[in-house]
Amino acid sequence: IPVKFFGLNEFSIRFASAFFGSLTILLTYLLVLRIFKNKTVALLSSLLLAVSPWHTMLSRAAFEANLATFFIVLGVYLFFVSLEKKSFLVFSLVSFILSMYAFNTARIVSPLLVIGLFFAYRPIPQKIKEVLIEQNKLFKQKIDFGISLNYGDIIAKQEPECFKFMGMGDLMMQ
After folding, report:
1. SS3 at position 165
2. pLDDT-derived band at 73, boundaries 50, 70, 90
3. In contact, 20 and 70? CB cutoff 8 Å
4. 84-119 pLDDT, tens per residue?
5. Would you tell me how many other CB atoms lie within 10 Å of the CB of residue 127?
């Protein structure tokens, strides 16, 4: 399409990639804003993408990976929109499919990302929720008891026939 408007020259060949690279920055802002609900984080993430040498190089040199990146980010954004408005799910899937036609790596990344998104955001049955909540309570009790490397209060050392519990200072002295 750019060749039709601008003629066959270097500008028209690179225009589509630069255009979609710029739109990717805007979509990154919208996606991060939807996920984190924080304008500062959204602006910072889109700024980092805008000044990223990798993204700039792909946008300027007319690489197909730039187009695939645009469609993947668009697909993820539309997926999050579809959590509220179900009709956007079709557009999200179309965007992921278009990304697979844009660049070969997207043929692997897009399906895995779609599967991951569907598993991460599918409704969890109530019975499984109850089991997970109970397991989380038990795990929290174990951590509160102090047998955890995360807190560093008590360390377990395996002796030949038993476990020996000691404080962090005792362990460093040996």
Report:
1. strand
2. very high
3. yes
4. 888 888 999 999 998 988 888 888 889 898 888 888
5. 8
Residues in Cβ contact with 158 at an 8 Å cutoff, skipping those fewer than 6 apart: 164
Average pLDDT for 23-42? 91
pLDDT value at position 135? 67
Strand ranges (E), the chain? 154-158, 163-167
In angstroms, the CA 169 to CA 144 distance is 20
What is d(CA 23, CA 74) in angstroms, rounded to the nearest whole number?
Answer: 9
49 contact partners, CB below 8 Å, separation of at least 6: 24, 25, 28, 55
Q: Is 21 helix (H, G, I), strand (E, B) or coil?
A: helix
CA distance 138 to 76: 35
Is the pLDDT higher at 139 or at 108? 108
Which residue's structure tokens are 């989380």?
136
pTM attached to this predicted model: 0.68
Q: Using CA of residue 57, residue 7, residue 22, residue 102, what is the dihedral sign?
A: negative
Please state, as a whole number, how many other Cβ atoms lie within 10 Å of the Cβ of residue 19: 15
Rounded to 5 degrees, φ, ψ at 107 are -65, -20
Residue 28 near residue 45 (C-beta atoms within 8 A): yes
Mean residue pLDDT across the chain: 75
Paired tokens of 174? 């040996």
